[in-house]
Amino acid sequence: MTAVSSPAELPSVMLDLVPLSLAELRTHPSPLLREAVQAIIAGAAAGQFGDSIQGQRD
Amino acid sequence: MTDLAPLSWVRTPSLVFWQTCDGPVSSLEATALRHGQHSHRKLLLRTFAEAVGAVGDELGPFRTDRAWELLDAAEQESPEAVAEVVMYPSVGIWLSRVLRQVLGRRLDDTPLWSEVGGFHALAAAVAVRSGLEFEIDVPVVHGVVWLPSVGVLRTDRPTGHAVLRGGSGGFELTIDGEVQRPRLEAVRHHVAKAGGRALRIVLDDVDPYREFSAPLPPRPLAEQERAEWFRQMDGAWELLMARHPGFADELSACLASIVPLAGRDMFAVSSSAAFGSVAMSPKASAVEFAEALTHEIQHSKVNALLDLAVLCRDGDDCRFHVPWLDHPRGVTGLLHGVYAFCSVVEYWFVERNFVAPELARRARFNFSYRRHQVAEVLSYLGDLPELTDLGREFVMGVSARLDACPATDLPGDLAQDVEWVNTDHHVLWRLRHVQPDKQVAEALAEAWLAGEACDQDFGPDVVAVSPESGRSPLGTLLKARALEGRASAGTDAEGAFLHGDLDHAAKLFAARLEASPKDLTAWSGLALASGSATLLRRPEVVHAVYHALALRGGTKPDPFALTAWFDQTAS
Prior knowledge:
The structure holds two protein chains of two kinds. Chain A is mostly helical. Chain A has a domain at about 20-45. In chain A, about 35% of the residues lie in helices and about 10% in strands. Chain B is α+β, with helices and mostly antiparallel strands. Chain B has three domains: about 15-170, no CATH class; about 315-410; about 415-570, no CATH class. Chain B has a five-stranded mixed beta sheet with strand order 8-9-10-12-11, sandwiched between helices. Chain B has a four-stranded antiparallel beta sheet with strand order 1-4-5-6. In chain B, about 55% of the residues lie in helices and about 10% in strands. In chain B, helix 3 (about 65-75) runs parallel beside helix 6. Chain B has helices at about 15-20, 25-50, 65-75, 80-85, 90-100, 110-130, 225-245, 245-255, 285-310, 330-350, 360-380, 390-405, 410-435, 440-450, 475-485, 495-500, 500-515, 520-530, 535, 540-555, 560-570, and strands at about 135-140, 145, 150-155, 160-165, 170-175, 180, 185, 190-195, 195-205, 255-260, 265-270, 275-280. At the A-B interface, helix 1, helix 2 and strand 1 of A face helix 1, helix 2, helix 3, helix 5 and strand 11 of B.
């Protein structure tokens, strides 16, 4: 497979919250952040939020 | 606070994607994957902050204001400590659980107050790691107070809540007015060294969320057991550094914790919510230990990639066969499987040339078996409409890696047994989980009775998950023979098959069907022994028509005549 070394980026699908302090995190008024939060809440209501386990047996 | 800068999006260089598709990643790509997981955890924390506000009075002392205050103070002292605790694998499991709990989904018997109280425990752990003097209410569950990434404090109360004071003087717990000096049972840090490089890992046998489930009691290993785990980690690291430097690189960048599982039946497990954690049973050798780590860390990478890039849509519709599991999987599961098992193929492709003579056949089997399985899924995965363009690129990357590990020098008997084992699994899977169209089965039965040709379209697969699982007796024996080079065979159908008398085996499987027509393993055995194209490709249709005819006429048709009829005329 050919590795691409161009500066291109993947289409962004995630807000970058790493730079925020915890105080900023819980008060940031960004509509995009609210939208992301609402998406998780809606996903949980629909049973679509959770973790998946990958396992293998002997 | 309205003067905050607008948020930016996570910028993921294409290089990270391509390198991840290509196989082992370096610390550069691992940092990007971890960054995405960190951002995701913080999004879940924000969601938790909003959702928990709507919970009523049932939280007792665990209103979250005090925990946020302590976290803010700790972050002033050590932002690194906050990041490290938030990114500790078990915190991801707790977050996933607590969010569902506060949003109204009951997962198990764990009370809401104790799960929400985990946020106080998280704040306490950050305070400990930041060196703060602090006091905070914390939950007691299974007799311990959880301090993620630090360990647990053992108390003499099974459950409830306590006031924890921590600082330079150690820990003090007040429960119902009684002050205790609890014992800290710390997670164990270990550094494996080889070839001038170190692998730093936590061996976590105490964290309540360590097994990616509801809180569990600690199960601290005895000193001797722990020493054995460290010895195997050292052996695995030495082996990986010597012969698999790429996998060693990515483990040093991605692996955070190893959780020892008590039983020996589960080889290894990982969770989408616990980046960098591998739970595993004890292994017989460093070779197997290294294989388990190599395999499971791939799932962490795929999970992290799936949060950063859309590889498929509707990926959870479970209707596909994968040879490594008995139940149907969705496209997301297929992507996980081919990627992780391709790494296993690469591992054994190299390792089979180095293992001790007594392990040589097992190494060749592992390589051949997994290679055959990955190739089977790749044969259809790339064409699925659920894949995005990126998903297709991902699959192409795995295909290229598999092609670089050709199965050229395997003994013929081993290759044949591997093919049979996987075919048997596929046939049995179809018999269990693929529902034939009843109208089609009836029409085929009519055609058979009328002496007409079998020209009915069988229709698309309709998968309905059955609880049945497990290998057939023939599959078990074939796998044992492939692994050991021999298998004890009796005089039954399986015995005849293993002795190479396929005609006789087919007759015995057909006789077994006469006695027990619902015995699906007799059908899969007949498919392998007879080589019937239709029985191998669409066994559920032959099975359904057989039963439709038996119901109509009261006598069962001859399975050989029926399969011959299908094979002669079916497309």
